[in-house]
Amino acid sequence: MDILDLRLPSQPDSAYRAVLVGGERWDGSMLDARIRQRASFLQARGLEPGHVVLCPDGPVLDVLLMSSAAARLGVAVFPFRAGLGRAELDVLAVATGTEWRWQPESGDLVSTGVLSAAMIPQETPVARLVKTSGSSGQPKVVMLSAKNLQVSAAAVNRQLGFGVDDVWLCCLRLSHVGGSAILDRTALAGASLVLHERFDAQTLAEDLRRHAVTHISLVPPMLDRLLDVGATPPKSLRVLLVGGQVLSPALAERALAAGWPLYLTYGMTETASQIATSARALERVCVDGSIGPLLSGVEIASGPPATSPARLRVRGPMVMIGYANPQRLPGRGLDDGWFETSDLGGVGVDGELRVGGRADEVLVIGGTNVSLSRVEAVLCQAPGVAEVVVVALDDPVWGHRMVAIYRGKPDEPALCSWCEQALSGAERPREFRRVAELPLLDSGKYDRSLIRAMAQTASKA
């Protein structure tokens, strides 16, 4: 059976060199004892290889214990956002054939009442289920194998030079692939891990220095908030990995000016996290959609970005088993192993992946093709604009009407006036709304569904 064992010969007692949570430090042997204890308890309660257990994504140390214990038993973990109601959990269990639910508050394992799918032999057992963020569409649940997780972790560690003497700080939710993948990378390297229960910019800035952190992952809104508190990078930090959504030139310039070692990354839940990452820290702002070279084993099927944009199609050992279903059968959402993304782009002659926005964000307005991501990128260059999201509402005459929801110094008339010089007629938003804060998903990405609702409300006002 393809069971993920993240322990290394150099770390026989535990996958991790040390884990630090809320001021407590757990060295490898202490943590290994806790993991073995948890694995024995789960096995005694009836967990068998091939089973799936729902697990809340907090407390974070408990998630780590569950993930590590489950990996040793050949059991899959399905982390979910802590606080979900029973009705929502029942829906997830039925849709994925999940047999068990872990309750950290009582330290007990309970049956979901779902008929076990583990009796169906699977050539590639599921090791982890992860719900997609659904920032602009209907979320799905992705099935990832042990091989998916291990190959991804190894490729990222090689690309970023992450090893046994390094420290990765994780402030991303562990129910999202960006957070859970950090557990895999740190365990595989036998390195140290600093876990935060939630993102807090001031606490993050303090812990980066306190624990001599070498690597950290953030989404752009988190980076923006870190810069807002005046944080500066400690000498120990070699990599600040930015992904999840496009990094605006204005935000990148702020971070580079403050000395942060920015690395861009591109990936998704369906590929167990990254498929392309910067080869070195950015020296200047990228405005052409460049990300970096593909990770080892990744194949891209699309035309070069210089030609007409095409959807990226990805294949490789880190691509998911398929979307979840009650029988946990593989292949759903794949075409002969290929996964087609919603993003446009391709690999240039220099071997770097370039991403040119989402296919569903290219609109026809008055007979002209307009890219929402391009409009956002231009607006982010407006003086005083800190963040901006552009959404499109239906329009009976023009087909679509763009609305810009932003945070920054200029008022609506001033930003509208600036756009007259910076954007062509079809590309100019017809409405602007300045807000104190843009709403975020649990993943840290912008909640585009809620922002769209804000835009609709503004249009009716």
From TrEMBL:
EC number: 6.2.1.26
InterPro entries: AMP-bd_C, AMP-bd_C_sf, AMP-binding_CS, AMP-dep_synth/lig_dom, ANL_N_sf
Gene3D superfamilies recorded: 3.30.300.30, N-terminal domain of ligase-like (3.40.50.12780)
Swiss-Prot/TrEMBL GO biological process terms: fatty acid metabolic process
Keywords in alphabetical order: Ligase
Alphabetized GO MF terms: medium-chain fatty acid-CoA ligase activity; o-succinylbenzoate-CoA ligase activity
UniProt cross-references to PROSITE patterns, sorted A to Z: AMP_BINDING (PS00455)
Ranges for domain AMP-dependent synthetase/ligase: 121-323
Top-level EC class as recorded in UniProt: ligase
Domain named AMP-binding enzyme C-terminal: residues: 375-445
Keyword Iron-sulfur listed: no
Pfam families recorded: AMP-binding, AMP-binding_C
Protein name: O-succinylbenzoate--CoA ligase
Organism of derivation: Thiocapsa marina 5811
